[in-house]
């Protein structure tokens, strides 16, 4: 604003004050204003924002010390895959091989998972992302405790919201019970699509047996295959 414009505004305010006060016009004042210039390029610039990314979350996970699992881990396993997956696969947590490599599902169960996904045209290299409920290995591969899954929950939720998968495949009882907030067995949960709500978004989700369970017992192979075929048909539709 120029000094002239400022003087006009001040005179108007003085006149208004005189009218509301005594009713008599006082002598005009010279306020000796200076010109003010605004750099419109700076005024129009948007403030910097810190965008959440998969890489940023991975860095946070590797540095995380929010629960006791950090004490004995070799490497956290944030997750891996494509940035816009058709399917997000979520397991329980890293095992020994995953702890050594800092990658999810790379041991025997992971190799079987890759074959299961390939059987319906899916792969972590082309159209999937693989993650876990907890990102550090529980000692002796025990089930993660509630406080441990709670400490990791915000990492997984942020990953889901950034990745925006078309579908979610949950592998195993612990992951399914944690995410779906239920005590039901996999036998009760599998064979159908359920809705997983994260924030304001809802993701079509199917739960099935963990690949490790298939390695232990042949009885789970047929129902797991049926779940995969159901997922494939849903993708195609």
What would you say this structure looks like, in words?
- The structure is a single chain.
- 43% of the residues lie in helices and 13% in strands.
- By secondary structure, the chain is α/β, with parallel strands linked by helices.
- It has 2 domains: 3-44, no CATH class; 55-236, 3-Layer(aba) Sandwich (Uracil-DNA Glycosylase, subunit E), CATH 3.40.470.10.
- A 6-stranded mixed β-sheet has the order 1-3-2-4-6-5.
- Strand 5 and strand 6 (201-208) form a beta hairpin.
- The longest helix has 18 residues, at 3-20.
- The protein is elongated, with a radius of gyration of 30 Å.
SS element count, helices: 10
Largest sheet: 6 strands, mixed
Poorly predicted ranges (pLDDT <50, ≥5 residues)? 36-49
Give the class-level CATH name of the largest domain. Answer: Alpha Beta
Q: Which superfamily, in CATH terms, is the homologous superfamily of the largest domain? A: Uracil-DNA glycosylase-like domain
Structural class: alpha/beta
Strand order of the largest sheet: 1-3-2-4-6-5
Overall geometry: elongated
Number of domain units = 2
- Gyration radius, in Å: 30 Å
Q: Quick one: how many beta strands?
A: 6
Order of helices and strands: HHHEEHHEHEHHEEHH
Separation of the first and last Cα atoms: 62 Å
Helix content: 40-55%
**Mean pLDDT across all amino acids:** 87
Short description:
The protein is an alpha/beta fold and 237 residues long. Helix content is 43%, strand content 13%.
Record the SSE blueprint.
Blueprint: H1 3-20, H2 40-44, H3 54-63, E1 80-81, E2 87-91, H4 96-101, H5 108-118, E3 128-132, H6 146-163, E4 167-171, H7 173-180, H8 186-189, E5 194-198, E6 201-208, H9 211-216, H10 221-236
């Amino acid at each position: 604003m120029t000094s002239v414009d400022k003087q006009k505004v001040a005179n108007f305010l003085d006149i208004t004050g005189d009218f509301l006060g005594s009713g008599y016009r006082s002598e005009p004042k010279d306020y000796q204003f200076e010109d003010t210039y605004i750099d419109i390029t700076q005024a129009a610039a948007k403030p910097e924002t810190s965008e959440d990314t998969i890489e940023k979350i991975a860095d946070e996970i590797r540095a995380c010390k929010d629960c006791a699992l950090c004490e004995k881990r070799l490497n956290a396993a944030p997750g891996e895959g494509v940035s816009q997956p058709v399917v997000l696969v979520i397991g329980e947590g890293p095992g020994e091989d995953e702890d050594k490599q800092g990658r999810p599902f790379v041991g025997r169960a992971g190799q079987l998972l890759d074959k299961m996904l390939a059987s319906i045209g899916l792969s972590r290299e082309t159209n999937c992302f693989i993650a876990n409920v907890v990102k550090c290995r529980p000692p002796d591969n025990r089930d993660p405790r509630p406080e441990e899954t709670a400490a990791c929950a915000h990492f997984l939720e942020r990953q889901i919201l950034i990745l925006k998968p078309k579908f979610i495949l949950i592998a195993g009882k612990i992951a399914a019970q944690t995410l779906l907030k239920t005590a039901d067995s996999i036998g009760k949960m599998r064979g159908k699509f359920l809705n997983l709500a994260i924030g304001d978004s809802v993701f079509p989700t199917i739960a099935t047996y963990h690949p490790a369970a298939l390695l232990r017992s042949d009885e789970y192979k047929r129902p797991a295959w049926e779940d995969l075929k159901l997922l494939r048909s849903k993708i195609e539709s």
